[in-house]
Amino acid sequence: MSEQNPTYDELLATCQRLEKQVAQSLKIQDELVKIRNLRDQDVKRQELIKSYVSEALEAGSKKEFGIITLEYFVQVFNEAKGALLEVNANTKSARLISTFGMDAVDCEEFNLETLDLDSIGREVSFLSENRTVYDYFACFKLVEGYVGPFFGNDGQLAGLIFVGQAAEDIQFFPSFERSNFANFYAMTQFAGMLFQNLKNQKKLRYEIDERKAIESALTKSQGKLVEIKNQLEEKVISRTIELEQSNVKLQNEIHVKEQYENQLLRQTTELKRSNQELREFASAVSHDLKAPLRNISTFSDLLRINYLDQLDQSGREYMNIVTKAVRHMGEVIDGLLTLSNVAAQPTPQTPVDMNRVLDNVVERMAPTIKEQQATVMILNKNIPQINGNHTQMERLFQNLLENALKFTREGVDPVIKIDARREEGDLVFSVEDNGIGIADEYRDKIFGLFQRLYTDELYEGTGIGLSICKKIVEHMGGEMWVDSVLDEGTTFYIKLPISE
Amino acid sequence: MLHFFSAHNELVNTTKAMSRCIGEALPTEDQQNACDVLMIHTTIGHDFPTLLSTARELCPNAEIVGCSCAGVIGYDGAHETMRAVAIMAIIADDPSEVIVSHTDQITGMSSYDQSRRMAEDMRERSSGVNMLYFLASGIDIACDRALEGIESVFGPETPIFGGTSSDNFKAITSFQFYGEEIYEHGALLIGFADPTLRVVMGVHHGSVPIGRGFKVTSCDNNRIYELDGQPAWHRLMDALGFPHDQHPGPCIPVAGIGERLSDELIDEYDNEHILRVIVKTEEDGSFYVPVSCQEGATIWLTKRDEELIFDGLRRMLNRLKTQIAVDEEVVAVFQADCAARGRAMFDQINKDEIISIMHDGVMQRPGTPWLGFYGYGEFCLLGGRNTFHNYTTSLFAIVRS
Hints:
Chain A is an alpha+beta fold.
């Protein structure tokens, strides 16, 4: 080109050269932008790595740690896929902790016996440049990627981090820059430290959890104990109140009972005294009456013997009346004495052979039975023993037999049946006659003292006999009642306890 | 009346990422059940089936639409990691206020017919649609023909805004979502029929042509065979110093080509050239551009001009703000940016500054729902006409009067 006046062609050539330089400078401009962007990306990576450390520190499990770690690795290095393996250098085995973006179900466990661990090295390496590792971990199907080992406190291999791309990712994902090795190495080391920390934490957490569980169990037990204690205290208080109330009630009842007992005692004492007085009175009366009666009887007998022929008809009749009255009076007094004696006897406890009692009574009454042409049948010849007083038992049945022989029907031969049967723990005697019977309205009266249904002219008597019978039975703890049909007969029943 | 809710995150676990997005945008189960349309943009690293099934599970009644992208933009900036996701949930008082139509077989030659069919389907279901959000495949669609297809039904006066899907700058394939279906040649049309709403748009790029340009000597619709009588792609690669077999993906940031605008649009566009991206090449050295080309046209390689980018963005925002009346409220913002305007063209500082300028310019209050993505192209009005753009930042403010 001419220095002074360049020709058109020279100018054109210069322009074309400049054009080309400008056009090609676009490439340089592009490279510069790329360099500046790499710088920007690096700054961002550092921030992400910092975030990774703080987030992974919070991981509560290996699984969680694996997820966080791989998510950060693929983000920091703009990769498609990733895998994290835990290596046990002692057992020469590896276990898959987590994967990102790929299915690695078929390769969860690795036996490292056949892998030369030295081939992994201690630095980050391209999978494609580390054929041993590449072939060994072919199941990840990464056609491009990097492997970063990390080590435990003992310096032994503790884990491996893979990131990379499968065939289908290559077209879109950027290629890994060797300049990233430093960041990858640094992040892998962080991952190793965090993983170790997690294991320590896990142990610590296990211990803490165990302790918490024990504390929780203790707290629960304590709570339960306190609950039981409170329940017991409540129960004690409740029972105490109930007891106090019960005590008050009992005190009142005792007080009332004492009052009753005192009253009863007083009444018993009064009754005893009254009975005693009555007995004394009866005895006194009987004896005091008997003495003048005996005089009357004696003198009336003397009068009848010595002066009967001097008396006229009326006088003799009067004399008979006196004699009769004296005898009746004597019988009444004897009856009263007997009655008071029954009450005065102690409660009988000696066994009494009732078969003998009845035989004695029938034998003693034989003249009267014969005189009245009566039939007396003892239907049960094997009567058990009872507790009682032999004499009183004979008096009881003699009275009843006398009654049956006394209240007979005109023209009817008396038939008297004596029977005994067991009824639970008792013995029930029956004395049945075919006499005149007792009207219903008098049935309750017959056991009353001096209760007589007929005049002496019809049937002689004192009105004391059945009272004595009932008294004897009750004194022995038994019962006595009557069943009768007028003009057909009467049956007296006596229930007495059997002697065991 | 339509209500908008947005959220985004960079969680790498796909289920967690979508669950958290929906949980943040629609905190209550009632809201999730009431969601009528769920728009999703996600970068390429997420597991799409899981992403969509999670969305379906949480928003059982929503029409799910979306696409893959090179990055998402939320109210706090851009997220261009391999796994970033953003959503815009729309709840309608009346379900007929938002209608979705879709196709799964849109390519260069069928762009007009498929778009027209979608538009007709939508028109049959609602007569009140007053603006259209259009998402389409970003690799091999003829976007100008697609716009014509939609306009043939709704008329050129109905504003169409949106963008095309992208991958991770690989220019291999991009994905569109409808329900739980994943398409590679899909397109989605979302019709808004809320009479209280209108859309206010702004578009800008900051690139300038370099050199004398290349003459298109052979082309057919959107496929350019030759530049300056040479295989088109080889010619460009020679100029850039790349080998002829260079894949177009890595060239996207540097191989944007410019086409001169008509004079009446230059002021509004703040630039003399509209840009085209090359995302697909053929072995014969031909390449595709997203719009039809004419033989004899001149195209230029372009380079970004930082001053024009920042100053022009402010001017664009000022123009946009003047379109919003004092009594109008910005209820949501959609943003479609060229993938090249992300990390491929800017470092973090520049990118953050650009986005913060946009936020400050449009958001009337903090937390305005915002859904943006880095795609391979943008649909935005220019000179009152629906136009397809590349390498731009395009803002769509939904305002309620």
